[in-house]
Amino acid sequence: MSNALTTGSLHRLLGIAPDTPMSIEAMCRRLRPVIYPVPDLSPRLEEFCLSLHATMDSLGIAVRSPEEVAGGDGRFPAGTVIFAAGIFPSELLAINRVSTLYNNIIVGIYDEPPPLTPDSLPQERLDAIVGRLARDMVHLLIFVTERSWTICTMNGGVVTFNTPSPRREDVFSTLVPKLTAQVVPPRAEDIDIKEEKLQTGTREFQAITDDFLQCSALWSSNGGLLTHTSTEGLEYRNDFYKRIVARYLDQRSGMSYGFFARQMPVTTLPARMMQNSEPSRKEEREGWVEIRVGEKRFLVAIPEVSVITTRSGCKKHDLDPRHDLVEIGLANGRAWLKTPEGVSPSELKPSFDTLTILAHALGNAFTASILQSLSSKAPFARQLAQEGASMTHWHDYPSLDLIPEGYYLHGQENPPVSCSTPQSAAYSLLGKIEALEEAINQGEEYRGDAHIEPHHGTNIVGTLSLTQTAMRLNPLLVPER
């Protein structure tokens, strides 16, 4: 993991808690699992749970009984990961015993194959997974068969291991990261809402709108861009659990996956290169942050950044720009959101990926600042100041030959955390510094980065417009002229 920024800096810049585990070893130390009792457990699931228990013990993860963990009211404290194996009647669901809606991860484990086929389209696969999550009120699915076990996550990720019981390496490298942080929408108290402050009638906004619409049209036939799963179409056990799902999703009418975004132009100051003998500041200057790029150290000014992006739940392949675009920003470590003129703020929800989007925007500004210190004519810094940058995220991976020239790849070796987690935002920012370091070492022009998120998707961020990026990544879908 990159040491470009300290954990204290990540906390100050993005609001990420200083004790957030970034390595898998740290994630193991933080994990607090219990095996939830089931009325009737099949022999296969009993064997799987015993093996999972032993594997976690070997990793130093203490699996405790519900009686040891639950409070006087029978509820599990925040931070507990609950493994619920088997089929439960509604009155015995683990969701009934959590202390908080957002700080307990429930893992459903089933003696059956996953509800997928090799021919399932990405959208069909996602809808099947989300439908089961809502039906059983869990956050993660594990399906066990005679020959394999499969993990399915809320973001549509599917990982199958060809062994009937969990191996130590698979639990360590794949399952533990998925259990470390919960997929949750941005909390209202973490974002300042600026109602109807996004002006949609300007020439600048019209140009941005055109870019979004052309981009959307080019992606519309790509099955990797998961569009929308409506909460109304899901099967619920009863209205009570339907209301819980609505609360969990902050009253969203559905979930869409991926985003398009345009970072607004930002002028950056050249970073100051620090001498190796110069001591690091325990408390960096207000408005500045120390960043390491390889063996070099830079003192970089922290600008305010802003981004026009798609709202949560909209159909990315069929955008309505005046209703589906919002502006988000970051100033002094605090996020804000501007809603469009004439649209009720209650209709608009910030993307689950808000913090990750802002981390990319801030990372772009830091990159431009460092490049300016190395060359006053750095093209990336000039373009960021004049035109901004684009960001495209979808739940699939491009062929390496489709990655634009001057865009540097990173993230393949990161722990496979889910979107909307603080780790995802941190890896986006830290990885961008790694990409910059590679460009500098190669003596090549830096134009952007391709952030691969294992078991999740890809972020393509850089100087190409959204439309240019879509054309590059969807060459077979671009109409002949």
What would the keywords be for this entry?
L-fuculose-1-phosphate Aldolase, 32% helix, Rossmann fold, 481 residues, 2 domains, six-stranded mixed β-sheet, 13 helices
3D structure, described in words:
With 481 residues, the protein is an alpha+beta fold. The chain folds into two domains: 21-180, 3-Layer(aba) Sandwich (Rossmann fold), CATH 3.40.50; 188-473, 3-Layer(aba) Sandwich (L-fuculose-1-phosphate Aldolase), CATH 3.40.225. Helices cover 32% and strands 22% of the residues. It is built from 13 helices and 20 strands. It has helices at residues 7-14, 24-30, 43-58, 66-69, 122-136, 168-180, 203-219, 239-248, 321-324, 354-374, 379-386, 422-442, 466-473, and strands at residues 32-36, 80-85, 105-110, 140-144, 149-153, 158-161, 191-198, 229-230, 254-255, 259-263, 272-274, 288-293, 296-301, 305-310, 325-331, 334-340, 389-394, 407-410, 448-453, 457-462. It has a nine-stranded mixed beta sheet, sandwiched between helices. The protein has a six-stranded mixed beta sheet with strand order 1-2-3-4-5-6, with helices on both faces. Strand 18 (407-410), helix 12 and strand 19 (448-453) form a beta-alpha-beta unit. The mean pLDDT is 89.
Using the coordinates above, name the CATH class of the largest domain.
Alpha Beta
Helix content: 25-40%
Report Rg. Answer: 23 Å
Estimated share of beta-strand residues:
15-25%
Oligomer: single chain
Secondary structure class reads alpha+beta
